[in-house]
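Shape matters. Shown next:

___
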Amino acid sequence: MSESTPILTLSQVSIGFPGELPLLTGIDFEAYAGEVIGLVGVSGIGKTTFLRTLAGQVPLMAGDVEIFGFDDIRSAPRGSIGYIPQRLGLVHHRTVGYNVLMGALPRASRWQTLLALPSSEMRQATRAAVAAVDLEDKILEPISQLSGGQQRRVAVARSLVQCPRLLLADECLGELDITTSEVVAEQLIHLAHEQGACVILVDHSPVRLKVLCDRVFELRQGTIREDEPDHLRLPMA
């Protein structure tokens, strides 16, 4: 159940890269705690750039944003925004446990971070997150020894440890077998519905998004619009 006040509001926002024409313009968008939002659209339409903008990696071209009560994404509290990029951002020569533990760093003290001394709470949270994605037997293995699907599960476990208020996931269900995708999707839904985070999920499958998400938006012709629920769609003539 989402709260009545949005945690994220975009008003007449344009998104793209400096010196180029915007990919998306005139965006009005709200996201609430406790919901899973799906984003769909053809390749190159701007889905990844949209997520990267919300993650603070790409500056807004125009418009206003409010997130957690701040008027600048860069002002959001440390660790409050999680991002799972398509390339996952894992350290391939380090272990599963190490990579998942990195998700706890935003909540660690300065000295814990500098001295690489995780607390017992951080280690326990890491083990719990690894178990949640069914990788207990891989916790000491380097990322380079895992399959692509297992690496995606590691990236999700890292986000579970981080406990973000907003999680941005870019195609994290893509190229997974049915069993693995169900495990990952279950954790994303749990993060939203049980822990009160907002999850914004990019996926190439509109059907899958309609099953998993509370709301689905389509990026099309330079803008974004919410899909109507199926029961409101008019029959084709």
